[in-house]
Amino acid sequence: MFISRSILLLFFAFNISTAYTQTLHWQQVAPGIWKGTTGKPETYDLLKAAEVSPNKEALSKMGSPSFPLSQSTIIAKQTDGKTYLQLPLTEQEQLYGFGLNFQTVNQRERILQLHVDHYSGTDNGRTHAPVPFYVSSKGYGVFINTARYITVYAGTGVRRDSDNAPAEQDRNTDPNWNPQPYSDAVEILIPAAGVEVYVFAGPTPLDAVRRFNLFNGGGCLPPRWGLGFTQRVKSLFTDQEVMKEADEFEAKGYPLDFIGLEPGWQSKSYPCSFAWDLTRFPQPAKFIKEMLQKNIRLNLWINPYVSKYSPIYKNILPYTASHTVWNGAIPDLTLAPARKIFFGQLYNAQIKPGVSGYKIDEVDGYDNWLWPDVTVFPSGVSAEQMRQTFAVLCQKYSTEIFHQQNKRTYGLVRGSNAGAVSFPYVIYNDYYKHEDFITALINSGFCGVLWTPEVRASANSEEWLRRMQTVIFSPMVMINAWASGTKPWSYPDVADKVKELALLRMQMMPYWYSAFARYHFEGMPPFRAMNLEEGFVQNSSPEKGNSSLEENPYTLATVKEIKDQYMAGDYLLIAPLFTGESSRKVILPKGKWYDFYTGTYAGDGEIISVSSGLDHIPVFVKDGAIIPMQPPLLHAPKAGDKVDIEFRHYGEKDGAYKLYDDDGETFDYEKGAYSWRTVTMKRNSRNEWEGTISAPEKNKPNTIGKVNWKQMGTDHQQ
Ligand code: GAL
To answer: Which of 77, 137, 200, 393 has the highest Cβ tally under 10 A?
Structure first.
């Protein structure tokens, strides 16, 4: 009797732990990338929405490493109609990513529910781009291909069956009692009966990120003009007011490449008509043409909810959802007829006459405004899946329209997700904490999205300048004056400094353009965390918070995060100062670093203090760097224009740099119409620095005019 009861119990225990375990079928899908399938994955997922082909050639060039983990340590189970995934986590490992977070870089020990939303001030997974991808400090990445809201326990759960279960501690007597005992797993709950999980090899975390980006088609390559200055004008501006503003920029000598028109360009907005307001813009085609003659492109604000006054309302209605947003019909963009009608209107009324891009608003949240999860879409795609992918669909299909015209676009979007890496859109939002804007910029580099710390208005000129100093080192240099009406010169005591910054951005255009080309061709994020930088060491010993036991009996020991300095392009380390600060500490990775402005030596693998006053944002340059600079133009060079370049070399190491070149406006680069010019800087036999640049390739675009070399840190100029 006793024996049979034990057997029964054993059988029961066996059932609990294994009854729902599912096999993960692994398959290599590209060099260094594997797909694991468990259960019955849904037919609609993030990759299906984006439908992008991996850049297999670039992935092959990165080599073919072996699977970075032990496959048997990745476990899938079915429970409660959901899929549970368990991935290994070792003691010293740190996790980065899980979307566009604003306050934290280290994601270990966090619980997140990844859900497309407007960021509300807490890193809880609800954000504009909750990309279900993470990268480990051990040098591998993991992506969950689902369009569901998933819950991530990033090393919080402690299982009884863990091989490394932490010892129980007694809080009464143990001063080191840990409220968060060591967890040996990342656990993820997906509300679906199956899922695909992708693993990306390293060996470095940056390699894993690059593989993720290349798997998603590589980063976007903006047109050159997209990297210039952009101003968004007040919402109800008329064509005359817009032109006057453009003229003011020109007359005052501030650069400007594109102007953003906010809701008032349309006859109706919230919901939208997608048709010009003929009282404010009586002759749209003429206006667009005149603006283009001034070298200014136009970007139009929309939110994709169709007003009954829109010319497309009747036609699109059969392809819209059961619910509305601000009473506007929501087009089901997974359906071809809906896309044809919706994007057809944008094409005919705006793109064909010459509009260069869109700002696609309100495709993220908030819950009260967006469609509820009970909404029914005619395609059968669930409201939840639509919420997770709507912004991706908007980006994909608007990009396609420009692609058909062989014209590049560069726009703004308030939501995104995995799969959108190659779409030329930059995320922004209504939240405005400067420090958090920088942390978002850092995190954008972990998840294949771009983010702008846009400038709107400021409490004082100091804040205005500090914000300008960071936005010029970001993917889009923008003043969003839709409500405030601010202009770069709005704070007169710093107006000249703002002009200098805007012109510096223009001078650095070849540097930014080449950085984006590396994003496109090699998957290298143009703006990224220090944690992805070789030689970056940070003190990893945990520090205990200082709140008293009474205040918080569960205070966690945390490792300090580096969320206020970042890498930009190949060589630059940006260390922003925020309002009220006049000095700061900067962690320099191993290797020599130099001051960007003067070329003087700054340090090597150490923490330095910098005090640069209001004048400058501290920027440091890697030893051997070559930074290409063009003249401080007011507009990006047009296709075919020749531009002189000064190559600035920093430090003692020989310089070797690849400068990217193409026409800057079309997609001809996809057919091979581009070149990488090799630039070097070395000491010659007389011990003087001497630069070389490879000859232009035959039948390839060549926009490089006269070339000049400068060794920074000396007055010597060749
Ligand atoms: C907000 C958007 C702002 C501005 C505004 C216009 O949703 O985030 O940047 O475009 O709409 O109504």
So the answer is: 200
